[in-house]
Amino acid sequence: MTTAWLAPSAGAARERAAASPAGIAVVHGQVSHTRRRPAVNAFTYPAFCLRLPLSKLPALAACGIAWNRRGALSFHDRDHGARDGSPLLPWIRGLLAAQGVAADGEIVLYAFPRMLGYVFNPVSFWLCHDVEGRVRAVLCEVCNTFGESHNYLLAHADGRPLASGEVLRARKVFHVSPFCAVAGHYAFRFHFGARRWLARIDYHDDAGDAQPLLETRISGRFTPLDRVGARALLWRYRLFTFGVVARIHWQALKLWLNGAQVHRKPQPPDHATTR
User: What is the pTM of this model?
Assistant: First the structure.
């Protein structure tokens, strides 16, 4: 189910057209996270990700990123999708067809690359366009620190395009944090801009409070990527992946010390994708 956050307008239509997928790019920005209750916690970290049009993955080597092979900075198909090393574009096309989503244009993946051979993506976003460049669906690929993953597919039941600022809801079915039960729902909002990437994820538990329990913001601006930029990226963020995992555990320790309730990890859902 979806609810409009901002009414679509002619300006929004022009923005969607301008945001039609271009080339491989790096997104420099930050991640912010706020927990509202009962243990209050907030942090903001500098971050980056890659914007990867799937049809352009063969151009990764020319951008200074190893594709499906070892490298100081690399991207591997096996880190996403079926997670067996099979090509990503046929996988997402098959998933969309099975779900009845008509997204026959470019598919753009926003994800972390491997840094020094190591990667952990808490969430990756697949923006699924039609041939006119409109976003028809977003697949949110969520991973936890237990080696499990689950997909939330966000799309309108009537097939109309998604607009910047819309609220897209999905029932929470997958365990991520021991400090949150598998209950309630997520409210997603995206900015489909030509220069800026923004994803907002609010988690509402079943406590009956109108305010989200957790608020997460992922934002940044696009910069074209070439070999020089890749070397600078590797130097600037060389310990980035290790930092992501370390920060997750550090924030978890702070919550535990502040008395946040710990929930046992349930079995993962028996289906790979929730819509």
Answer: 0.88
32-70 pLDDT, tens digit each? 999 888 878 888 899 999 999 999 999 999 999 999 999
CA distance 173 to 168: 16
- The pLDDT score that the predictor gives to residue 21 is 59
Alpha-carbon dihedral of residues 19, 25, 29, 34, nearest 10 degrees?
70
Strands 273-274 and 149-154: parallel
Q: Which residues of 130-150 are buried (b: 16+ CB within 10 A; e: fewer)?
A: beebbbbbbbbbbbbeeeebb
CA max distance for the chain: 51
Beta-strand (E) ranges in 158-256?
A: 167-171, 185-192, 196-204, 214-224
3-state secondary structure of 234: helix
Among 113, 152, 110, 143, smallest CA distance to 127 is for 110
Q: What are phi and psi of 249, to 5 degrees?
A: -70, -35
Residues 166-205: b if buried by 16+ CB within 10 A, e if exposed:
bebebebebbbbbbbbbebebbbbbebeeeebbbbbbbbb
Res 10: pLDDT: 42
- The span from the CA of 192 to the CA of 15, in Å, is 7
Q: Are 249 and 146 in contact (CB under 8 A)?
A: no
- Cβ atoms of 48 and 31 within 8 Å: the answer is no
- pLDDT lower than 70: segments of the chain: 1-21, 207
The string over 40-59, giving b where at least 16 C-beta atoms fall within 10 Å of a residue's C-beta and e elsewhere, is ebeeeeebbbbbbbbebbee
Instruction: Map residue 197 onto helix, strand or coil.
Output: strand
